[in-house]
Amino acid sequence: MRAGIAIGGAMLALAVLSLIYVKNAARFARQAMADGYLIVVGPDGHSDTISRRKQRPTDIFKILVNFMQITGSAAAINVGWTKFMMSIFTGWGTVSGGADGNSFFSFECAFPSEENDLPRSVKTTVLLAFVPFVVWGAFVIVYTVHALRTKRSRQDWRLSSGIAFRAVLQAAYISETKAFIRIFYCVRAGPLHGLFWAQDTSLTCYKGSHSLLVLFIGLPGFLLISIGFPAWLLYKLTRTDTLDQEQVIVRYGFLYKLYKSDTAAWEVVILVRKAMFSAIVVFGRPLGGGTQSCLAMFIMVASILLQVRFQPFLESKLNNLELASLGISTFAFIVGNLASQPEMGKWGTMVISIIFTCVAGTFIVYTAKQIFDVLFSGLEEWVEKENPGSELPISRAEVVTKAANSACRMSKTILNEKKKACMEKISPHFFKTSNLESES
């Protein structure tokens, strides 16, 4: 029962995150060509591609998700975290889709133990590796049903499925990379013994069940997703002469619409950062928590320097938020490094953990407020559009009230139109007679 809840919770978290990413990608694909792009040349002669569309809450939401995925990885670093800090990191990793799947409960308990069968550890790894594909399959089924009902072309169906696939991979990249890297992680039991799989030391590395896991899941997944996905994006997004073409904008625009023209491939930088963190939390465990924290800090400092140097986002607000998120993530690993020092003691670790919790909580609350402000700004514009000629609301309560009234009117109109169309299909002769009587 608990295993089923854990599996369902992990899939639900990834599904909700993927839904937000997919909806944003699909909305951008529909509006990209309508919004258009404006090429602005600065005083230094450098050109930037600036979208005419307005900022969306998903722009800020992605920064928050990346922050939670990276910082949530600290739970896998073997230092003296307090239970409260461990629960925070694990929660962040789970809700952001960056957890490795066994955060709250071991999925191995979900499988029966039978002789002459694949070990539970292998089944668990296969399940976790295929979770994003199950989520993508659900989107494909929805698109298929919708395409059949609306008689959409096969090209539209392929386009929607491809956009959904890229959006799901973007959301689940760090968890997938962790899962694939973990397949290759082996440990030596002793100087006279061979290598055993770290996830299940009853399995000898690259023999039997583990060899099948490496051959059919680990190696293809790592090459095609962990390496192939960033490499493909790098190839597509560095071809600046094609970024303004309709097909490229519709298919990949949601991946580079936030960035300047010379940093259009910045999403690849973010993916590489996540891949490096995945390698640290998996292969760095024998090095100890202190070394892991130092390696993580090195990556974060390099990320901060790159962010300051290139300022990749079009809007300064997003650049500032990204810089703040990187700084707080660096602070998390500094806390981890200090916590690994025995001189800190229990109370010292608790104090710096409380300080980090306050700083990170303030950042999350501020980012959530920014998302709400963008949402509310769009709601105000929608209310003004749906109520032309009316006075501008003076309070947010009035905006919400008018938005609810407008939504109710729209819903009632749509329902009446659908009801009329349904009745016309059921009894067309009745409607034809009624129309003739009304004309006479």
Secondary structure blueprint with pairings:
Elements: H1 2-35, E1 37-41, E2 47-51, H2 57-72, H3 83-95, H4 120-150, H5 154-183, E3 186-188, E4 195-197, E5 200-204, H6 209-237, H7 246-256, H8 266-283, H9 289-310, H10 316-339, H11 345-386, H12 396-426, H13 428-439
Antiparallel strand pairs: 1-2, 3-4, 4-5
Helix pairs in contact: 1-4, 1-5, 1-7, 2-3, 2-10, 2-11, 4-5, 5-6, 5-8, 6-8, 8-9, 9-10, 10-11, 11-12, 12-13
Stretches where pLDDT is under 50 for at least 5 consecutive residues are 36-53
Tell me how many strands there are: 5
Number of helical segments?
A: 13
What class would the helix/strand composition place it in? mainly alpha
Shape: globular
Whole-angstrom Rg = 26 Å
N-to-C SSE string, H for helix and E for strand: HEEHHHHEEEHHHHHHHH
Quaternary organization = single chain
The residue fraction in helices comes out at over 70%
For the record, give the distance between the C-alpha atoms at the N and C termini, rounded to a whole number: 68 Å
Summarize this entry quickly.
By secondary structure, this protein is mainly alpha-helical. Helices cover 71% and strands 5% of the residues. The chain has helices spanning 2-35, 57-72, 83-95, 120-150, 154-183, 209-237, 246-256, 266-283, 289-310, 316-339, 345-386, 396-426, 428-439; strands at residues 37-41, 47-51, 186-188, 195-197, 200-204.
Features:
440 residues, mainly alpha, three-stranded antiparallel β-sheet
Describe the protein in words:
34% of the residues are buried. 71% of the residues lie in helices and 5% in strands. The chain is mainly alpha-helical. Helix 2 (57-72) runs parallel beside helix 10 and helix 9 runs antiparallel to helix 10. It has helices spanning 2-35, 57-72, 83-95, 120-150, 154-183, 209-237, 246-256, 266-283, 289-310, 316-339, 345-386, 396-426, 428-439; strands at residues 37-41, 47-51, 186-188, 195-197, 200-204. The chain is built from 13 helices and five strands. The termini are far apart. The strands form two sheets. The chain has a three-stranded antiparallel beta sheet, with no helix packed on it. The protein has a two-stranded antiparallel sheet with strand order 1-2.
